[in-house]
Design goal:
Helix content: 40-55%
Largest sheet: 7 strands, mixed
Strand order of the largest sheet: 2-1-5-6-7-10-11
Bound molecules: ketopantoate
Shape: globular
Number of helices: 11
CATH architecture of the largest domain: 3-Layer(aba) Sandwich
Strand content: 15-25%
Number of strands: 11
Structural class: alpha/beta
Length: about 325
């Protein structure tokens, strides 16, 4: 099995590293800032797992290695440019982020036939500053990682066993990820999974950030009009690109995720709270951009982009 190389010191990257450590899967971490890399992870049962010391700079990767980029979309371009000289043997690259736009960035820099996986995860993790001044990551909710191979010629193999025949390198990378942080589900229609996640983030993230509320509160009647308008616009745009969404089901799914993650403050709420750049461009901004190309009007999403940007300016 190749090694997992995890870029960035964020919550999800640190969770993958800690879980790899726990399950005996070889890995290394490459945070941007070594000082803020979590030193250990706190499991839900109270178990504490110490992480390996991080590596300060990229190294040349082998073909069976896996480079995982659990970064924000706006950080992806710089990270890939930094890693490009070390990818000549074409190790598998895995993108894992909220929102959309990462695939386009990766294709521009790596080419359309690069061994690439796109993933979305519902595992919950929170990076925290401890009283001793170092950082830890807390595993806050068991989830699932969905993953697929967008650069393979369509139609994508239906099952992981079929993928193993067509693209063994990618199937082995998925198996390595599953050994590190299970469960990992192969999706032949990964773009549908990513658009589904986009619909959830497009509603929960801006509403929680703008109204300073936990996820569960967006289910209240006072947000119904906004929720429905976002889902209607989302559905029109997604369907214009050949996806098959239904606005009512999209809305029901948003409500069920908001309830399931009810006690959480969304990532956008946290970004606004801590004065960090938000992912609004990759979420509602992506819907607005894709709508423009098809001549679809999306006033609710357009307004949300403006209002969230006003919060952080
Ligand atoms: O992905 C999320 C986020 O906060 O970015 C949700 C699903 C809304 C959970 O908080």
């Amino acid at each position: 099995m190749g090694k997992l190389h995890i870029v960035g010191g964020g919550a999800i990257g640190s969770l993958i590293a800690a879980s790899a450590q726990k399950n005996g899967v070889p890995y290394d971490c490459y945070p941007r800032n070594i000082k803020t890399m979590p030193a250990y992870a706190q499991w839900q049962d109270g178990q504490s797992i110490a992480l390996k010391p991080a590596i300060p700079a990229p190294v040349v990767l082998e073909k069976d290695d896996v480079l995982i980029l659990p970064l924000k979309v706006y950080q992806l371009n710089a990270a890939l440019i930094q890693w490009l000289p070390y990818l000549s043997r074409k190790p598998t690259v895995v993108l894992m982020h909220n929102g959309m736009g990462g695939l386009e960035v990766a294709r521009d820099l790596l080419g359309r036939d690069y061994p690439l996986l796109l993933a979305t995860t519902s595992h919950g993790a929170l990076k925290e500053n401890t009283s001793c001044g170092d950082f830890q990551v807390k595993y806050t909710g068991l989830g699932v990682t969905q993953i697929g191979a967008p650069n393979l010629a369509a139609p994508s193999p239906q099952k992981l066993a079929d993928l193993l025949q067509v693209a063994p390198q990618l199937a082995n990378a998925i198996a390595a990820l599953d050994s590190a942080l299970p469960p990992v589900q192969y999706r032949s229609d990964i773009l549908k999974a990513l658009w589904t996640k986009l619909s959830v983030n497009a509603v929960i993230n801006p509403l929680t950030a703008l109204h300073n509320i936990q996820n569960k509160h967006i289910t209240k009647p006072e947000y119904e009009q906004s929720r429905i308008a976002i889902c209607n616009e989302f559905t029109q745009v997604a369907n214009a690109y050949g996806l098959d969404f239904d606005a009512r089901s999209a809305h029901e799914n948003v409500l069920s995720v908001a309830k399931a993650t009810g006690e959480n403050y969304s990532s956008m709420h946290q970004d606004v709270t801590y004065g960090r750049q938000t992912e609004i461009d990759a979420i509602n901004g992506y819907i607005v951009e894709m709508a423009k190309k098809k001549g679809i009007l999306v006033p609710e999403n357009t307004l949300l982009v403006e209002r969230v940007k006003a919060l952080t300016n």
